[in-house]
Write a structure and sequence with these properties.
heterodimer; A: three-stranded antiparallel β-sheet; flat; B: alpha/beta; six-stranded mixed β-sheet; four-stranded antiparallel β-sheet; 9 helices
């Protein structure tokens, strides 16, 4: 009951701050775009025409089983990058806000452990983004399936994988929030990590360019220690477009190492929060 | 066996340390206090005396550097120790996205109340603190300061706490509202609820509290029953004779009686006789070392 109250409270705050409705409106716009603006005519399993805003592309005769995963891949990449930034910008304030003086004392005066309180806020935040992401991806998937008759199920994996990386980033938001109670920093730090990720992902190339052993080790350590936003994005793309022989063929270690990062950061956030004076 | 005291602290100490400069400030220093069950207790002290830090340690919003605090015998480090507590902070910032009823519902849920009880009690609480029920579905961003105090008091009361900790409960409330809040609190006292009142309004404490502790520089400098602390200044006799009006101050009851006998023998008319009580303000100023 207490967990539900904490989640609902986060959700209510997201509604009041128009965070939920903002994300919801964008999701709806994208769904409507694919529903009404994009037209795909399929003739005997191959695309006859694809038209956007009334402009028809050349006849390509590409099979829908190839075309749909490619479009899905582009959408997934867009959601994963732009959508992630948007989600972090929108929801980063939800954790620091509960720590405001005059508000936190009252919550802490209730028979709720601090771990429970932070977990409730974390889950509520995840739910706000998760609902919108599920709505958007499922909506697009249904539209493509309905229009082409090809149901690209791996596209639905965009939901858990994107939500997973958002959860990883949210642990950073939580840590920064309990340390400094700053919404601005709660945005800046995870965004910096997201920008840093594709740079660090060039591990093999950069290591050749670095001249000292310690700098190579440092780069390598940073690459493995920090969340692999870029690599996970690559996995999503491979899963969605089907460029792999099956789930077992992918390198899943970026997921595990990112999860390890999240556990450590979340644990640290809980530890800091449990020791703080308000 | 139920605990004898609602609040019990032993050698409680809180030192705040600046993370960068290492400078230390002792907010609460070796504070041992016992608050009896069912009493109305006033916590007084000048600004920066450590009262709020003390209250925060009772709520575990602030961790003691040393010592122990217990509420009804339970160590305040355990969340369960806060189950019997209702709290109204001084500079509260209730989230403005709540309606009055929504806010009560949320804090009652955090106190472990089930949905049915919450739905039943919320309108009753509005009545009890003197808020019109039409405000239940209005966002609290639209509430006045006085209304926020009332709804804040309602959230502190909703789960029927055994211990009510109030930080400046009548701040921003008009005189009629103050009287109403005092009446609500007095009814609670009759029901055996312990009330800890942290207020700068000495008259309010004097009117409402049975026991009081005065804190200065993190330490208790005076503690006792309000009646006792403000009494003990002797007696004043006013006389009326041919020589005019006279006021005679006598330190004890016995001395007053002897003086009355003398005055009667001498045929001097006694106009009035009354015990001389000092105001709590005088006691407070004396205790914290200020000048009268």
């Amino acid at each position: 009951m207490i967990t539900a109250a904490l989640i609902v409270d986060t959700f209510r705050e997201a509604l009041a701050r128009k965070i939920f409705w903002g994300l919801f409106a964008l999701s709806l716009l994208m769904i409507l775009f694919f529903l009404f603006v994009m037209r795909i005519d399929v003739v005997e399993g191959a695309t006859a025409t694809i038209s956007l805003f009334g402009q028809t592309a050349d006849k390509t005769n590409v099979g829908v089983d190839k075309l749909v995963p490619q479009i899905h891949g582009a959408i997934a990449a867009f959601l994963y990058s732009f959508g992630m930034f948007l989600a972090i910008f929108a929801s980063a304030g939800l954790i620091p806000s509960v720590l405001e003086p005059g508000r936190i004392e009252l919550v802490l005066s209730k028979p709720v452990s601090r771990a429970h309180l932070l977990a409730g806020r974390f889950l509520g935040n995840l739910l706000v983004v998760g609902i919108n992401l599920t709505l958007l991806v499922t909506g697009i998937w249904l539209i493509f399936g309905w229009k082409t008759g090809f149901w690209n199920v791996p596209f639905l994996l965009t939901i858990p994988l994107t939500l997973f990386i958002f959860a990883v980033m949210l642990t950073v938001v939580a840590l920064v929030g309990v340390l400094w109670e700053s919404t601005a920093l709660s945005v800046m730090v995870p965004v910096f990590l997201m920008i840093l990720s594709p740079v660090l992902a060039q591990d093999k190339v950069v290591r050749k360019l670095l001249d000292s052993e310690w700098s190579r080790d440092l780069w390598h350590a940073l690459y493995y220690a920090l969340p692999k936003v870029f690599d996970t994005g690559r996995i999503i793309l491979q899963v969605v477009t089907g460029k792999g022989a099956g789930m077992g063929a992918f390198e899943w270690w970026p997921i595990w190492t990112s999860a390890a990062f999240a556990i450590v950061v979340y644990g640290t956030a809980q530890w800091v929060f449990s020791r703080r004076d308000f | 066996m139920p605990a004898e005291f609602a609040i019990e602290t032993e050698h409680l100490r809180k030192v705040f340390r600046n993370r960068w400069t290492g400078r230390e400030v002792c907010a609460v220093d070796d504070l041992s206090l016992r608050v009896r069950r069912g009493t109305t207790f006033g916590l007084l002290g000048p600004n920066g005396a450590g009262k709020t830090t003390f209250v925060k340690m009772l709520l575990s919003a602030c961790h003691p550097t040393a010592g122990v605090a217990r509420v009804y015998g339970q160590d305040t480090r355990h969340p369960a120790s806060r189950k019997p507590i209702g709290y109204l902070p001084e500079n509260h910032r209730f989230p403005t996205y709540f309606t009055g009823a929504g806010m009560l519902d949320f804090y009652a849920a955090l106190s472990g109340m089930d949905g049915a009880a919450r739905r039943r009690l919320i309108p009753e609480l509005f009545d009890r603190v003197g808020l019109d029920r039409k405000w239940m579905d209005v966002r609290i961003g639209k509430y006045s300061k006085g209304m926020l105090q009332r709804v804040g008091l309602a959230q502190a009361l909703i789960h029927s706490p055994d211990l009510l900790i109030l930080d400046e409960p009548t701040d921003g409330v008009d005189p009629v509202g103050r009287r109403h809040i005092r009446d609500v609190l007095q009814k609670l006292e009759g029901n055996g609820v312990t009330v800890l009142l942290n207020s700068h309004l000495l008259e309010e404490v004097e009117l409402f509290c049975r026991d009081v502790a005065i804190v200065n520089k993190g330490r208790i400098v005076l503690q006792g029953e309000v009646a006792q602390l403000t009494a003990g200044k002797g007696y004043q006799i006013k006389t009326n004779s041919m020589n005019g009006h006279r006021e005679i101050h006598l330190p004890t009851r016995e001395a007053a009686n002897v003086e009355i006998d003398r005055l009667r023998r001498e045929g001097i008319e006694i106009e009035s006789l009354q015990p001389v009580a000092s105001r709590l303000e005088d006691v407070f100023i004396e205790a914290v070392g200020g000048k009268k």
